[in-house]
Structure formats: structure tokens, C-alpha cells
Amino acid sequence: MSNTIDALALKKAFIAGANNLDKNKEYINELNVFPVPDGDTGTNMTLTILSAVKEVETASDDMKSIAKAMSTGSLRGARGNSGVILSQLLRGFSKKVQDKDTIDVHDIADAFQKAVETAYKAVMKPKEGTILTVAKGVASKARECADADMTISQFCDEVIEYGDSVLDSTPDMLPVLKEAGVVDSGGQGLMVVLKGAVDCIMGRVTVELNKSTRNTVNVSSSAAGAGNDNISTADIKFGYCTEFIINLEKPYGDAEEEDLKNFLESIGDSIVCVSLDDIVKIHVHTNHPGQAFEKGLTLGYLTNMKIDNMRIEHNERVISQSEREEAEKQEEDRQHRKHEKEEPRKKYGFITVSMGDGLKKLFGELGADYVIEGGQTMNPSTEDVLNAIDKVNADNIFILPNNKNVVLAANQAATLCEDKNIVVLATANAPQGISAMIAFDCTVDVEENVSSMKSAVRNVKSGQVTYSVRDTSIDGKSIKEGDIMGIGDKGLVSVGSDIEQVTFELISDAVDEDSEVISIYNGVDVSEEDAKKLVDRIEEKYPDVDVQCYYGGQPIYYYIVSVE
Q1: Pairing state between β 559-563 and 517-522
Q2: In whole angstroms, what is the distance from residue 16 CA to residue 157 CA?
Q3: How confident is the chain (564 residues) per 10-residue block, as mean pLDDT?
Q4: Which of 86, 146, 334, 450 would you label with 155, given CA atoms 20 to 30 Å apart?
């Protein structure tokens, strides 16, 4: 075996690492400490590295081209905090190898060190016991092995073994990992990538470049007749137009397709079920969008989730997914060109991230110029944020991620934008984003607005109610699969079997003598009647507090609440 790696070998090793991550992403997802339905570290890291693979596969077989493809592809495709950190590791690695014809163990050690330095700089408050710790351990061992002039085979074995030992120690650094009985999911993802790459370098796996893919389309006959918009609200049997894409992770043949269609027909109508390569595009009219999402989750992870209330927008025309996307894109681009041509650039603009038609509408009413659909279960990529920035014609643009796992991608997009001043406010949820927008004052400068908006965010106590996807223990509380969980700003607050009771306990924990307003945003799977019962109960206990309830329409989370 050669003791150097040329450009083609690096290309194949990188693709092999990505393939290994793709195969193991569901296992990595299950390592998330909180057993919520949107535990998606493996998915985010996979989507990030596969974005780079697309560019690497088409890059010329020279080191500079491959390094650039690894860096730019992962930077633009980065999703979630773990994905952003992975992209920064790849960025630093690429900088050190891009000017080489071949690389040896010394070059790899230098590149690992640069990778770690770059990733640590990208995180404002680095935390040990995470992917960063594992990467730092790998880089340290790589330097030690390179200085000992090991062969590349010995080098790889030693580095992987040490990386695994650092990963195994992460629960000792983060008590929350130890209580949940898991290692850090991001660190596990990094080791999976490295092991896949090493297997390729050692000849244990092979990578075929430019492999052709199958392309089959099956359309459910249930879609026949779709497109009639001459209906009244009273005629609508199923109120929510629900669309999403299943990125397949489980076997999907004729039997699975038939089972999926039968289920969709049992909860709704106007069904379109299209399979293309490893994705399935779904469209269904139903009264229970959450049930459709949960069925999809049994086959893979979900993207492009969209819910429209047809009783409000009953003239929505049902067309195929591809036609809808193309039509909307063309109209969006046309409006954008028209806006930029006719309207002078304004001083301030807003971009928010949100799931649910109710929350999206609310942010629009508060002045958001562009709402990126995403957040829980679907973290937007850096490129998604860049595309949104491009559509807002303003000198200063505030970005409200409304999710802790979207903040780094938003920050990364801000660093890549050159002609606009981008301000990312690290809002962790929709209530914080709403409070920040309410505090905005168009008559004062950017710095004063940032100060007042951050102050408003600090005054918000927030929480979310969802269900557990596995048995575990958090903060000393035993949790069983299917339990309802109330999660506050500082962790798990309440666990039980009743949605209303868990939500009531979550809100009660946040209310104190200074509380003035309680805001409740009910999800798509909560009926108006159930939401009203909860509000009545809250108002009875806290008669001096203003209780407000809004339809959020968010999936997965039954309620999002805030106390101010």
C-alpha cells in the first residue's frame, strides 16, 4: 500500500465516508438526548455531506478542485448545528490539502489540526463532550502518529482507535449524555465518516464514480379529478392540504407503496403518491396532517413539509408536486425581479424560520418579508438562508432562526453575504421570534434595535409539548415511548399521558408573580375545542394574567407556549 493519497483516492475516500454516514444516519438520530420526533443529528450531517458529494463527484481529479468542492458544497448545504460544524471541519481540512498533489500522514495531521481550529472558531461557546471534542482528539492523535513516522495503514488504525475512545468518554464530560446512556451523536457521526473513508483507503470498500441511478415514477390513481377549485368551504370534507417528501431509509417496494396509499386513503382524499429514486412525494387532503407525517416517518425522514388550511384558502388548486414547485418558483422569481426593479431598497428587512401555516401567517402580519418553512424536523440549509436573503430587498436584514439548531446555519449564511448587513438574532423558538419582532422600531438604528429585541427575547419563558419516540431518562424523570413531554427553556418539565395536563404543568412551572401574558400556539393535531378547554383552565387558575391562544398549525408539537 502506498503511503500517500492522491486526488482521486481522496475523492473516493470522501464519498465512502459520506456513504457510510448515510447508511448509519438513523442510528445516529437515535442517539439524541431528548427522545423527540425531530432528533435529527444524523439526518442533518448526512444532508450536509451529500451536498458536498454532489460537487465532489463532478469535480476534476486534482486536489484543488476536490478540496474546493468539499468545502463549498458542505458550507452551502450545511443543516443544523452538527452539519455546520461538520462543514467547518471540512473547510479547514480542505484549506490545508488544496495545494498538494498528494498527501501523506504529516499533511493529514496538519489538515486535521486546521479543521479543528476552523470548527472551534465557528462556535461561539464551544462545549466539550461533543463532536468538537472528538475532532480535537482525532487531530491530537494524528499529530502524535505522524511525528512517529507511521505508515498510513498504522496511522489510520491508531487514529480511529483513539477517536473511538474519545467518543466513548463523552458521557463523562456531559452528565446529560450519561443519564440518557448515549455517546454524543455528532461525535458518532464524525467517526462514522472517518471509518468509511479509512475503509476505502485500506481497500476494504470500493467506490464507483458516476454510477447511474434508477428513475421510476408511480402516481396513485387517487389523484384523478384533482384540480377542481369551484368548491365552497362547506363542501370541504378534509380541511388540510398536506404535502411532504419522504427521503427513504427503509425498504420501499410494491407492498410498502400499497400500504402507504391505503393509509392515506383511510385519512383523506386527493392523494398523489409519487416515487422517484429514493424519495416519495406525498400530497393528501386530510383532517389529521400529523398522522400523515407520522406514517411517512416510518419509512424515512421528511422534508418540504407544507400544510394549508383549505377552509381558509378553499380555492387552492390541487396540482402535481413538480408543477406546483415550478409554478411557485417562476412566480416568486418574477415578483422578486419586479420588486427589485420597482421598489427602492428599504432600510430594514426580516427573515424568519417557521413551521405551520398559522405561525407563518402571524410572522407575515408582524412584518416578516420572507418566511423559510422549516425548523423542527426540517432544518433549513445555509443555502436556503442565502436564497431567502437574496429575495429581501433591504440594506439591513434581521434573521430570526426560531430554533437553536438553525442558528449556526444562519450565521454561516451571514458570513457568505457581501452586499447586505445581516444580523442573526439567536431566537430559539417561535415565541422568542414573535417577541423580537414586536420590539422592533423602524425609527431607530440597527444597534438600538438589536439591544431592544434581545431584551424582549430574554423576557420570554417558552416551552413545547410533544411525544417521546423511545424509552429513556432525563433530569431524573423516567420516560416511556409515546409519553407526552413538556419541555421548557432549561429542560424537561413534565411527563404524562394527557396532552392538556402536561401543557398545564408546563405553563404553571413558568408563571410567577411578574407574569402578565400567556401565549398558546396550538398545533395542527389539536382541535379548537381542546385548545379552548386548556385556555379556560389556565384563565381560571391565573385570572390576573392575559391568556391568548393562536392557531400555529405546527406539526409534531401539540402546543408551543410562552409566558412574559
Answers
A1: antiparallel
A2: 17
A3: 90 96 89 66 91 93 95 90 92 96 96 95 85 96 96 96 96 86 92 96 86 32 36 60 86 88 88 74 86 90 80 46 54 57 83 92 94 78 93 96 91 90 95 95 95 95 90 84 91 94 96 94 93 96 95 92 95
A4: 86
Global confidence as pTM:
0.70
Let me know: does 173 contact 194? Beta carbons within 8 Å.
Answer: no
Instruction: Output the furthest CA–CA distance in the chain (Å, rounded).
Output: 78
Pairing status of strand 268-276 against strand 279-286: antiparallel
Nearest to 359 by CA among 502, 519, 539, 535: 519
Q: Are 486 and 463 in contact, with CB atoms under 8 Å apart? A: yes
- Please report, in angstroms and rounded to a whole number, the separation of the first and last CA atoms in the chain: 65
**How many C-beta atoms surround the C-beta of residue 141 within 10 A?**
21
Q: Smallest Cα–Cα separation from 302: which of 386, 193, 376? A: 376
Q: What does the alpha-carbon distance between residue 74 and residue 382 come to, in Å, rounded to a whole number?
A: 9
Q: At 292, list the grid cell.
A: 400523515
Q: Are 207 and 15 in contact (CB under 8 A)?
A: yes
Rounded to whole angstroms, how far apart are CA atoms 100 and 6? 9
- Cα separations in angstroms, 250 against 161, 253, 297, 383, 469: 30, 10, 10, 28, 17
Cross-sheet strand order for the sheet of 279-286: 268-276, 279-286, 240-248, 300-309
